[in-house]
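Q: How would the structure tokens look for this protein?
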Amino acid sequence: MKSYRVLAAMLSVAGLSCKSSQDQDVVATRSALGTVDVKTGKEQVDSPKYAADERRFPEGAGSPLRPGPTIQFQPSDLTSSIEKSPLRVGIDNLGAPVGAGLLDAVASAVRLYEWPEMRSVPFSYSESDVTGGDHAADGYRKSTLAYVEVTPSTTLADRWYAMVLSALPSGVSLPRLASHETLPDGTIGARFSPGSHPTLTSVRVCEKGSGQTVVIADFSERVTHPQPAHMMDIHLSPSAGSAAACALDLASFGPDPSRFVRSVCQGVALNTTPAELALDGAIVSANGRGLESPAKGAGPISIVLSSANMAGWGDGCTIIRP
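A: Here is the predicted structure in token form.
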């Protein structure tokens, strides 16, 4: 009986030790994951996915290399009907501050023009850096971008403008999937319009295998058509030697105005076979404004799809921007 009591005591101590270790693990896990207010459901501290920069990129051999900051234009290139949305050049540094020096360098390079005339538009600006952590005191996520915000000196007219960087500051790069365009004078920027000026922003061509190709036309704002089946036509060039059987995917467009229209083509590889995409002139914005080109004005839009003027856009996809 005595030996049994000794054994029971040893097991009890081991159990307490194990529980203590488990409790420490739980505390450590809670510390890493953060806590949640059971009444509000708000997260109170950073989560591992959006943790501090030093957690994601710790120092030491074998640690992942931290990528440098990248530029993001807000709004993105060829966006219309932005109304009073802020005009910003953002700096994505994965949630970490970028410092006053880099913000000043970006601010000194910002220009605002009427497009396509490239007449200067006066403006003021403000700078905002990331202020540590990804969550505010109430638990909600804060902006993970530092940015230079542009404020025009007078109300912008109902026309196209371009917000550009005269030069790319040292220490930043451009993202692969971009919100910008290289303009004819070599500057990097984004064209936008406060009012409704629907236009084609890009065409994406994705090979899906088994002879199927998906073509997606993206617009600067939501558009509609009285007969959606006639919104877009795709014609192969005479040298292709065959016809493309393409049909609009009306289910993806839906009954409401949409920012894109999708067509599925069979039996042709449009990433390598020259073709022409034509958008019908009856396409209008949600408030009835007709299709137009920022440089050429109102009217139907057509664009040649060719490997010579298309760039890579992920696996099996290419893209062309007007």
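Helices lie at 2-33, 53-56, 100-109, 250-253.

Residues 13 and 281 are 82 Å apart (CA to CA).

Upvote if useful.
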